[in-house]
Backbone:
């Protein structure tokens, strides 16, 4: 075959291949949103819907620098008609601290959707934040536990408010999420005020309670109005339950902040402790990030 004919044949083959490849290249350039099933990599975490994101500077998907806020759905105390609420300031003050430190925040609740925020749980300093869409969008659209991928989080933060006593502590999916963050991710478990109720049932893979042998703080029953109707609805007592399960419970008298840091468990006593708890979580996360990579996630 004359060499000129060989060259022409090769050119035809090359042109055909080029015409087939170019449309694919153009499609890829349009991004994953146009073709989610064909363009997404095999390792893409997309089996569950993402939680409501509140940070304006959210990191890229797959980057493990997110913190999961766990809030309660209950609008009443137990089986009564006594209103219950999330503590708005415990959301805002911790959110501000985490956001300033560069972390993104997602919200989850037992029922998903909006959570109750009563006026009594909103002080004059945080009231303007009811207009802050970054926070309110998250609180009005919390994820359901089944929508959460634990691999995305470096820490969890249990928000207080009297409704934290109901629905959260006994929720098995929330428990699984938190223990995956703690044991598999080497993450931090934190709680403030009545939010400590959320950690009393958590168990390690060994079957040992998370609080066993640890210094824990939270809102103690001796500071409650024990003759009030709401208190009679409580399904358990925070201090008593922590101590029964092997924890050492520590509080101070009055309304001053008090925080206990024991390994990767960070707990605060009261409303005033929300910011210090968040600051302590950031400090623990940064200290762990600075350690050699061989550090064991199971330690602490």
Residues:
């Amino acid at each position: 075959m004359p060499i000129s004919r060989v060259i022409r044949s090769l050119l035809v083959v090359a042109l055909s291949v080029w015409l087939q490849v170019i449309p694919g290249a153009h499609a890829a350039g349009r991004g994953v949103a146009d073709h989610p099933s064909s363009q997404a990599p095999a390792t893409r975490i997309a089996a569950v819907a993402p939680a409501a994101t509140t940070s304006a500077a959210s990191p890229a998907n797959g980057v493990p620098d997110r913190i999961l806020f766990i809030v309660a759905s209950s609008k009443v105390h137990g089986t009564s008609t006594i209103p219950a609420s999330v503590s708005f300031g415990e959301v805002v003050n911790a959110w501000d601290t985490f956001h300033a430190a560069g972390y993104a925040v997602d919200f989850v609740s037992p029922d998903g959707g909006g959570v109750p925020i009563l006026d009594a749980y909103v002080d004059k300093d945080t009231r303007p934040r009811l207009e802050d869409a970054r926070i309110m969008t998250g609180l009005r659209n919390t994820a359901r536990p089944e929508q959460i991928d634990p691999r995305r989080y470096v820490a969890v933060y249990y928000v207080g408010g009297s409704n934290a006593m109901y629905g959260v502590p006994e929720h098995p999916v929330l428990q699984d999420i938190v223990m995956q963050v703690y044991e598999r991710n080497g993450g931090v478990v934190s709680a403030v005020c009545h939010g400590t109720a959320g950690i009393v049932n958590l168990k390690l893979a060994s079957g040992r309670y998370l609080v066993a042998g640890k210094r824990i703080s939270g809102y103690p029953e001796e500071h409650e109005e024990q003759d009030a109707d709401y208190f009679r609805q409580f399904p358990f007592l925070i201090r008593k339950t922590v101590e029964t399960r092997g924890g050492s419970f520590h509080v101070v008298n009055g309304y001053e902040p008090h925080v206990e840091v024991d390994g990767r468990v960070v707990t605060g006593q009261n409303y005033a402790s929300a910011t210090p708890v968040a600051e302590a979580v950031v400090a623990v996360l940064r200290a762990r990030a600075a350690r050699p990579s061989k550090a064991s996630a199971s330690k602490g």
In short: Residues 1-62 have pLDDT under 50 and may be disordered.
